[in-house]
Design goal:
With about 130 residues, the protein is of the alpha/beta class. It is about 35% helix and about 25% strand. The protein is built from two helices and six strands. Helix 1 crosses helix 2. The longest helix is centred in the first third of the chain and has 23 residues. This is Transglutaminase-like protein.
Length: about 130
Amino acid sequence: MIVVYGIKERLNRIKSQLSDVIHGCMQSVLGMPEDKRAHRFVPLERDDFYYPGGRSDAYTVIEINMMAGRKPETKKALIKAIFRELESQLGLPPVDVEITLKEQQPYQWGFRGMTGDEAKDLKYKVNV
C-alpha cells in the first residue's frame, strides 16, 4: 500500500497522474501487475503540513509499504525511478519529494483472510 501526503490544493490537482507515475515505476522496477494498485492520498490543509526549509508548497511525501524481501539495489532503483519520473512527467523536482520504503515481514501482512507468508498465488515476486 502507498500513502501520499501533500498540501490539499497542490495534491488534489495531480493525484491521478501521481498515481500513474508511481504505479508505472512499481511495475517496471518491481514487476507489480496492473491490478495491484493500492494508493491512498492524504490531502492536508497548509497549517497541518509542516515540512523542511528549502521546499515549496509542492512538497510531497510518499510512503511505500511492502513485504520485505527485495534487494537493496532493487529498492534504490525504485526510489530513483520515482524521482526521475515525477520530475520528467509532472515537473515535480526531487527536492520537493520525500520517499520512504517501509518493509514488514510477510507474516505481518494480512489480506484475503491470510497472512502474506501463507499466500502462494501472488502474481508478482517479492524477492527481486
